[in-house]
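Handout, section B. The chain below has 143 residues.
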Amino acid sequence: MARGDLTDLEWRIIEGLLPTERGRKSRPSHDNRRYLNGMLHVLRIGCPWRDMHERYGKWNSIYVRFRRWAEQGVWDTLLETLVELGLTDDWQHMIDSTTVRGDSQAAGAKGGLIRRLLVDHAAALRQKSTPAQTVKDVLSASS
């Protein structure tokens, strides 16, 4: 286990909240814990996905799983559940202006197209992010 990787206790809390992965065709799916540690490594140090340490696996496979979980709302649900349990502070969605380009209406006009699209997209993701099992369920089952 590398510095910054999930501890066994942290993994036990989070493990049941992540979707199970099936390998495509004859390829096996890889360990969610190792992939999650790779995702957290990239997010923590801010390196490009291609520069991720090799101990986590193939960068592209980890990136694809990261994107799929984002599209499925896994991250939102995970954070909401951790907040409900009091294991982390309240959270908020943040949009970095270096990655989101606005049109002329977005600069000052209320209800601009970009803003509406982002709000609608966030609402759609939130609707999809209802896990079969929450952190509370995992913790109560292990008690």
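Note. The chain has one domain: 8-135. Compare this with the example in section A.
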